[in-house]
UniProtKB/TrEMBL annotation:
Record EC number: 2.1.1.63
Alphabetized Pfam families for the sequence: DNA_binding_1, Methyltransf_1N
Domain spans labelled Methylated-DNA-[protein]-cysteine S-methyltransferase DNA binding: 118-196
Domain Methylguanine DNA methyltransferase ribonuclease-like per the UniProt entry, residue ranges: 36-112
Main location: cytoplasm
InterPro entries in the record: MethylDNA_cys_MeTrfase_AS, MethylDNA_cys_MeTrfase_DNA-bd, MethylDNA_cys_MeTrfase_DNAb, MethylG_MeTrfase_N, MGMT, MGMT_N_sf, WH-like_DNA-bd_sf
GO biological process, one term: methylation
Organism field: Amycolatopsis magusensis
Name of the featured protein: Methylated-DNA--protein-cysteine methyltransferase
Cross-referenced HAMAP family: OGT
UniProt lineage: Bacteria, Bacillati, Actinomycetota, Actinomycetes, Pseudonocardiales
Catalytic reaction list: a 6-O-methyl-2'-deoxyguanosine in DNA + L-cysteinyl-[protein] = S-methyl-L-cysteinyl-[protein] + a 2'-deoxyguanosine in DNA; a 4-O-methyl-thymidine in DNA + L-cysteinyl-[protein] = a thymidine in DNA + S-methyl-L-cysteinyl-[protein]
Length: 197
């Protein structure tokens, strides 16, 4: 069987990149690009960014399994998911500025379709927690309109589809300890330390 493929040329990365870009441009032009994605390197590891026409819909850490995240987007949003970095240039630029210490908040259109109900109320409040500040899970529960829903705040933070941009890393336990984070404890510590500097 390997003899069948012996005469095939090796994969040319430049050609593959050009073909992917043409495919993405054609899909965008024809209105069939429902979810565009790309990956970017960051100080907290490789991030997957995904956007619909409405805005940024997903930010995922490598430990969240990018392939599984893309499969979920295909099931929940649309099967028309394509690597198309162009739609994510502004998000990539703003994340770079954030990690370089030049940006304290994000100004991006966001698509919150992956969150509903109380979880969406929590995410809406998270954007109000200022750079370098933290709030406890209990404080966030109160601000989101349900003071006794402390555990539900933890769940909302753990399932936040837009970490970093919607800053769930700024939510800590009442005793000041960090608590959990989708990007892992090292990432949460790094982000809070960076913002406190």
């Amino acid at each position: 069987m390997s003899e069948l493929f012996a005469d095939l040329p090796e994969i040319d990365e430049d050609t593959t990149t050009r073909l992917r870009a043409k495919l993405a441009a054609a899909a965008e032009r024809d209105g069939v690009l429902d979810v565009a994605y790309r990956t970017v390197d960051s100080p907290v590891g490789e991030l997957l960014l995904a956007a619909t026409e409405a805005g940024l819909v997903r930010v995922a850490f490598a430990r969240q399994d990018h392939e599984a995240v893309l499969e979920n987007l295909a099931e929940v949003v649309s099967p028309r998911v394509l690597r198309a970095p162009g739609r994510l240039e502004e998000a990539t630029r703003q994340l770079g500025e954030y990690f370089d210490g030049q940006r304290r908040s994000f100004d991006l259109p966001l698509d919150f379709r992956l969150s509903r109900g109380f979880r969406l109320a929590v995410l809406t409040h998270l954007a109000e927690i200022g750079y370098g500040k933290t709030e406890s899970y209990a404080e966030v529960a109160t601000a989101a309109g349900s003071p006794r829903a402390v555990r539900a705040v933890g769940t909302a933070c753990a399932t936040n589809p837009l970490p970093l941009v919607v800053p769930c890393h700024r939510v800590v336990r009442s005793d000041g300890s960090f608590g959990g984070y989708a990007g892992g404890p090292e990432a949460k510590h790094r982000l809070l330390t960076m913002e406190a500097a």
